[in-house]
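Homework help board

Subject: predicted structure for assignment chain

Our instructor gave us this sequence and asked us to write out the predicted structure in token form, then describe one feature. I got the tokens but I'm not sure how to describe them. Can anyone check?
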Amino acid sequence: MVARSSERSTGSVDAIGPLLAAPDMRGAAAGWLEHLAIERHLSGKTVEAYSRDLRQFLTFLRDHLGTPPAISDFTGLAPADIRAYLAARRADGLSGSSLSRALAAIRSFARHIEKTRRTGTSALAVVRGPKKRHALPKPLTPDAALRVTDAGQIDPAGDEPWIAARDAAVFALLYGCGLRISEALGLTRSDLPGASGKSAARTQTLRITGKGNKVRLVPVLPAIVEAIDAYLDLCPYPLVPDGPLFLGARGGPLNPRLVQRRMATMRGALGLPDSATPHALRHSFATHLLMNGGDLRAIQELLGHASLSTTQVYTEIDERRLMEAYRTAHPRA
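My token output:
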């Protein structure tokens, strides 16, 4: 994985040619991207995004200064120059979150220059990033989440019964275990608890490798095991131990787009809101646990969040739900 990231970052550096930056700046950019990929173990996509942000910043500096920027130009920037860059990107239609990420990339590059070249800039410390819109997750109601995971509620629409059972098993994992869709579709046959036996003989836990290669154990409820067993019994293809657990109609790995399309179909059939997506089932898992007295630290571990602050957003959802109930039911509301 590191090798792939390194190759991708090198390809991105090739795009920073002599017309875009001076030689010392191009060398610093190459070293920074290599540091992100190899030493910090960032994913290839993250390195690509940071490389893209740097190229856009260097393009702005070239046009702003009238010459391909060198490191001395970068370290000599004033806060007004950084604000001009942010204003230009905002005028291009960039969202607040994208601007924040771009500014974070530039700050990371500046730290790398300060560490490797013993020279820095104070302009970035002065400029504040744009405020991010605070969008709360939108979970399903408990009743809607249960209907989505019920194979009897999934209309095969001409598909074979095993496909409906497969999709119900995927949805059951997303809601019952709080998995990301990539984590559920990344499971192999041998990942199942007690893979050689039926549900009664299984240890009811799953070992999940999530973002940043963070490994966590999640409990598997009997209803989820039953949903997976129903799919296994109906699946017409042999499942090899190290092969994907969930297969497509032709026997290859299941494409996440098909899971998203199934959910879109069910939104219309069950009268669910547009916010009902596969990832909303993960939000529903966390929200419903919290509503029923679940410990926030335990929910953090189950979701695989690196920071508790990421999990705390679900407390705001619960607070809003309580306030809505108060306003609806209390005579003095």
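Reply (TA_rk): Your tokens look well-formed. For the description, you could write something like this. The two ends are 56 Å apart (CA to CA). That's the kind of observation they're looking for.
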